[in-house]
């Protein structure tokens, strides 16, 4: 097996995986694969670079407020894709399985195209969406994962093990933005909306009608004014993007506020409901028996677990009748227990047998 990594954090993770499990795993860093393969050029007609190129273009526009012509970006990333393809071509075909973290990002997607050409099986890894857990999945991650979507599966699922009741706060990448923030008083009743990272694949790939957090903010501003309800936002601790104009509007608005100084768990527990595009905060909110509404494509868009909407009208209708929504706690508990005990892997690599099984 090969673990194809693109940064030091991934290298450290897969090295720990190798040490803990004693599996036969070669770890290859993308920026240290130097040998070019001219032979690879004859395979170019058999590969499809459109997804990684288009994602990279979306990523550029989401990160940078710069009017770069799309054609220029396409040509640049197409050449970059061919360059990466030629570099990775001699290394990846030596293995029968390829391990990647996430798998959507540019260099990973090129490596996976080579794997597909040679019928090499991919295995995907991702951060877990419940405390102290991570994902191993042969099908994919996020919306593409293998978690059952049939509600009857969870109705019949049995597990008496407990669930965690404490979330683990994320360490902010932009620590200054979240340091020494004064806690403003929260409204007595409110809807909590956690921001996501505008340039994350969850937004770029799996959010069909909400394209960024600014659009989400103004959508909820209209709804708050229409329904006279309080909305509390919190920025994502890993986002490098700033929203000074949104903070200015919220500061002078009757129904809107930011609560960056509050722990996410406290905001979840005090909220009447949580609205998310497809964030793991939605799953975490279920731990506290909360009503969760999703706006994007999420693997947990299962009727009876959450309510999913794909337009403003449906969202308005749910919020108007929020008090009439009775959640099925037993069903949700079954769903969470399946995720926590069956699907996800402990961060401490303590369940070696389970890891080996998922890698086999």
Features:
single chain; 360 residues; Rossmann fold; 6-stranded parallel beta sheet; 14 helices
Q: For the largest sheet, list the strands in their spatial order.
A: 2-1-3-4-5-12
Q: How many E-type strands?
A: 12
Please, what is the average pLDDT?
95
Q: Secondary-structure element sequence?
A: EHEHHEHEEHHEHHEHEHEHEEHHEH
Q: Ends: how far apart?
A: 11 Å
The share of residues in helices is: 25-40%
Overall SS class: alpha/beta
Low-confidence stretches: none
At the fourth CATH level, what is the homologous superfamily of the largest domain?
Glycogen Phosphorylase B
Rg from Cα: 22 Å
* CATH first level of the largest domain: Alpha Beta
* CATH architectural label of the largest domain: 3-Layer(aba) Sandwich
| Residues in β-strands, percent | 5-15%
Number of H/I helices:
14
Structure description:
There is one protein chain. The chain is α/β, with parallel strands linked by helices. The protein has two domains: 2-127, no CATH class; 162-340, Glycogen Phosphorylase B (Rossmann fold), CATH 3.40.50. It has helices at residues 8-21, 50-63, 70-88, 106-117, 151-155, 175-178, 201-204, 213-227, 244-251, 264-270, 280-286, 312-320, 329-343, 352-359; strands at 2-5, 26-29, 97-101, 121-127, 133-137, 191-194, 231-234, 256-258, 273-276, 292-294, 307-308, 345-346. A hairpin with a 5-residue loop joins strand 4 and strand 5 (133-137). It is globular, with a radius of gyration of 22 Å. The protein starts with a strand and ends with a helix.
């Amino acid at each position: 097996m090969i673990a194809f990594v693109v940064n030091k954090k991934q290298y450290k993770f897969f090295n720990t995986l190798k040490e803990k499990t004693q599996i036969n795993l070669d770890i290859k860093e993308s920026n240290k694969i130097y040998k070019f393969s001219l032979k690879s050029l004859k395979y170019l007609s058999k590969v499809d670079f459109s997804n990684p190129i288009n994602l990279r273009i979306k990523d550029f526009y989401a990160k940078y407020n710069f009017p770069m012509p799309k054609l220029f970006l396409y040509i640049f990333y197409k050449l970059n894709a061919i360059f990466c393809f030629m570099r990775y071509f001699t290394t990846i075909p030596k293995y029968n399985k390829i391990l990647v973290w996430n798998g959507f990002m540019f260099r990973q997607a090129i490596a996976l195209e080579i794997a597909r050409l040679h019928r090499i099986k991919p295995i995907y890894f991702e951060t877990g969406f419940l405390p102290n857990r991570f994902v191993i999945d042969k099908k994919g991650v996020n919306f593409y994962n293998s978690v059952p979507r049939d509600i009857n599966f969870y109705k019949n699922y049995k597990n008496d093990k407990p669930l965690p009741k404490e979330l683990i706060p994320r360490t902010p990448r932009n620590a200054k933005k979240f340091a020494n923030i004064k806690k403003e008083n929260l409204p007595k009743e409110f809807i909590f909306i956690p921001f996501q990272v505008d340039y994350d694949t969850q937004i770029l790939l799996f959010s069909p009608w909400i394209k960024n957090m600014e659009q989400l903010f103004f959508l909820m501003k209209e709804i708050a004014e229409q329904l006279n309800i309080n909305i509390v936002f919190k920025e994502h601790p890993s986002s490098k993007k700033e929203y000074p104009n949104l903070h200015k509007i919220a500061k002078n608005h009757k129904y809107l506020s930011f609560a960056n100084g509050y722990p996410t768990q406290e905001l979840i527990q005090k909220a009447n409901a949580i609205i998310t595009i497809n964030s793991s905060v939605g799953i975490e909110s279920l731990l506290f028996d909360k009503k969760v509404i999703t706006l994007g494509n999420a693997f947990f868009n299962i009727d009876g677990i959450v309510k999913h909407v794909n337009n403003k009208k449906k969202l308005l209708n749910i919020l108007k009748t929020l008090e009439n929504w009775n959640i099925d706690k037993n069903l949700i508990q079954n769903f969470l227990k399946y995720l926590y005990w069956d699907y996800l892997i402990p961060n401490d690599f303590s369940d070696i047998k389970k890891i080996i099984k998922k890698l086999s």
